[in-house]
Structure formats: structure tokens, C-alpha cells
Design a protein that fits this description.
By secondary structure, the chain is mostly beta strands. The chain has one domain (about 1-100, about 110-225). Helix content is about 5%, strand content about 60%. It has helices spanning about 40-45, 185-190, and strands spanning about 1-10, 15-25, 30-40, 50-60, 60-75, 75-85, 90-95, 105, 125, 135-140, 145-160, 165-180, 180, 195-200, 210-220, 220-225. The strands form two sheets. Strands 1, 2, 3, 4, 5, 6, 7, 9, 10, 11, 12, 14, 15 and 16 form a 14-stranded antiparallel β-sheet that branches. A two-stranded antiparallel ribbon has the order 8-13.
């Protein structure tokens, strides 16, 4: 089965990007492909785009990634991340170009950080029958290891594209673990920030819970990511 979701990304009321994700699921495997492109107003400063893909297997525990890739481009600079997983553990990470020598206050990703982890994409797809929150998502994106701690915050109606669904609202606490420079201002801001949320709703086609809305406070203002259309 196949399901597509398009999202708009705004900084406050200012549109800054568009994103889309296509999820294909069968009895044994799944693929999620995503695209991100900055809006014209952002392109005046620098054009940003990204393509990501995760493939994996379906099991009684839900989705388990085998491979996660991200190609991220900002202006003329391109970064490629390729992560391989086996049974929930990272077996290989390739980053192109290779990272420069890390500063002395760099918190390195250790072997224990790469065990029992999730990729950034399918970690946010919740199997039917499970609670979206509370749960802790141990995420590794090819560079950084973090925990996203989800706590129940109630339910809300979410409207988009003429349809309305009931969404499960989870507050999110960002806990950086490794793969970053200690004292980095944006990391510290996110770690201390309140008001971060993700709203999950069940898709009518796949019977899985997926994000339909997110609120992320940043130093520049609050970023909102909202589905353009919903089904249910």
C-alpha cells in the first residue's frame, strides 16, 4: 500500500519550505522517501534542499530500518549521510564529505550510542494499536545521537484539505546524547526549550500513526510543520 503526505513549513506565519513523504508498505518491508525544498523567500538568501530515504522490514514491533540515507544541499555545499542498521543496531555510517577534525569539546558518538537506535524518519511512524506517547525515541541520524522524549498532552482536531482528523498531541523534550559540540548555542536552546510538540493521526490507507503537525521553537522563532491534506 502507498500513502503520500505533503507538508508546509512556516516560521511563524512566513512560509519557508515544502516537504513531502511517500510511504510504501507490504507485509514484509517498507520504504519511506522524502523531499524538502526551501521557498522562494528563503532562496533569496540560500537555496536549501534535501532528499531522504529509509528502507526496512516490518515486524510485530513495527518498522525496523535497514538503511537510511540523506542528501542535504545548502547553496553549493552538499552533504551525504548513509547509515546501515541490523536488528536495530548501526553497523556502518558513511558521511561525504568526511567531517573535519573535531574540536576538543566535541562529544563523540560511542559504540553504546549505536545500539538499539532508530532512524529519524520511521521513528515517527507509530504502529496501529500502540500509544504515540509516552515513549522515548532513541534517534541516530548519521552524525548525532539524541533522545526525543514524548509525553501525552491530550487530543486535538486537525483540519487540512477539507478533511478533519483527531490527533494525538505529544509534547517533546530534546535530549542530546553525542555527536555535537558541547556548549553549542542552538543545541542548548533546544535542550532547554519548552513548547515543542508533535501531533499524530492515523492514516486511512496504512492504518499507521504519522505526524500531521509539529511545533519547534528555535532562536529565530517558532517553526510549524503541518500536513497540507489528511486522510482518516
Amino acid at each position: 500500500m502507498r500513502h503520500r503526505t505533503d507538508y508546509k513549513v512556516t516560521l511563524g506565519a512566513l512560509p519557508i519550505a515544502r516537504a513531502s513523504f511517500v510511504t510504501e508498505v507490504n507485509q514484509k518491508s517498507y520504504t519511506i522517501s522524502g523531499r524538502f525544498n526551501s521557498s522562494a523567500i528563503v532562496d533569496i538568501i540560500t537555496k536549501i534542499s534535501a532528499e531522504t530515504k529509509v528502507t526496512g522490514t516490518m515486524s510485530g514491533a513495527g518498522m525496523r530500518a535497514d538503511r537510511y540515507t540523506l542528501v542535504y544541499q545548502s547553496g553549493k555545499k552538499k552533504h551525504i549521510y548513509d547509515v546501515r542498521y541490523r536488528n536495530g543496531n548501526v553497523t556502518e555510517t558513511t558521511v561525504d564529505p568526511e567531517p573535519r577534525r573535531r574540536p576538543r569539546n566535541w562529544i563523540a558518538v560511542g559504540p553504546e550510542d549505536l545500539k538499539a537506535v532508530l532512524d529519524p524518519i520511521s521513528s515517527l511512524v507509530i504502529p496501529d494499536g500502540e500509544a504515540a506517547c509516552p515513549r522515548t525515541l532513541p534517534v541516530y541520524d548519521g552524525e548525532s545521537r539524541m533522545d526525543l522524549v514524548l509525553t501525552p498532552k491530550g487530543r486535538e482536531k486537525f483540519k487540512a484539505g477539507g478533511a478533519e482528523v483527531e490527533a494525538v498531541v505529544c509534547s517533546v523534550r530534546y535530549v542530546p546524547k553525542s555527536g555535537f559540540r558541547k556548549g553549542r548555542k542552538d543545541i542548548e536552546y533546544l535542550r532547554k526549550a519548552g513548547g515543542m510538540e508533535i501531533w499524530f493521526a492515523k492514516t486511512g490507507a496504512l492504518k499507521l500513526y504519522a505526524p500531521v503537525h509539529a511545533r519547534v521553537p528555535t532562536q529565530m522563532g517558532t517553526i510549524y510543520v503541518s500536513a497540507v491534506e489528511v486522510d482518516g
